């Protein structure tokens, strides 16, 4: 049972017990449950309803993120299939034209170093 439905059950049971208790005491002796019991039942039901709504929103958000992820994976696979290894020939040609002794250029900032500023 998911959190959403568990929260709905708790809200229904809480309100049903409060209403039933008030009806039974009202029919038997003309009174009602103490205010603390009624407030506790309403607070429990309200909290459960809020929790159920938050759980439903979480499920919807999770479904949308899953759909977006599937779309992005499919799109990236399509781009990869269309592009293939076209750049491989360029890189191999570049390396062959510069010979085996080509200078390795490290990543980073070119020009003056940070210490010269």
List key phrases describing it.
mainly alpha; 117 residues; rod-shaped; 3 helices
What can you see in these coordinates?
The chain has 117 residues and is mainly α. 76% of the residues lie in helices and 0% in strands. It is built from three helices and no strands. The chain has helices at 3-29, 35-83, 86-98. It is rod-shaped. The two termini are 64 Å apart.
Total beta-strand segments: 0
Q: Which stretches are poorly predicted, pLDDT < 50 over at least 5 residues? A: none
Rg over CA atoms? 34 Å
Mean pLDDT: 83
Distance between the termini: 64 Å
Give the helix tally: 3
Helix content: over 70%
Order of helices and strands: HHH
Percent of residues in β-strands: under 5%
Report on the biggest sheet. Answer: none
Gross morphology is rod-shaped
Helix-strand makeup class = mainly alpha
Summarize it.
The protein is 76% helix and 0% strand.
Topology of helices and strands:
Blueprint: H1 3-29, H2 35-83, H3 86-98
């Amino acid at each position: 049972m998911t959190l959403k439905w568990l929260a709905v059950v708790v809200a229904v049971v809480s309100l049903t017990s409060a209403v039933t208790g008030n009806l039974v005491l009202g029919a038997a002796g003309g009174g009602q449950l103490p205010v603390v019991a009624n407030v506790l039942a309403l607070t429990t039901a309200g909290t459960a309803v809020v929790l159920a709504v938050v759980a439903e929103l979480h499920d919807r958000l999770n479904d949308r993120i899953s759909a977006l992820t599937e779309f992005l994976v499919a799109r990236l696979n399509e781009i990869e299939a269309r592009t293939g290894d076209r750049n491989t020939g360029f890189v191999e040609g570049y390396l062959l034209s510069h010979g085996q002794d080509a200078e390795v250029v490290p990543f980073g900032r070119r020009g003056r170093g940070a210490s010269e500023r």
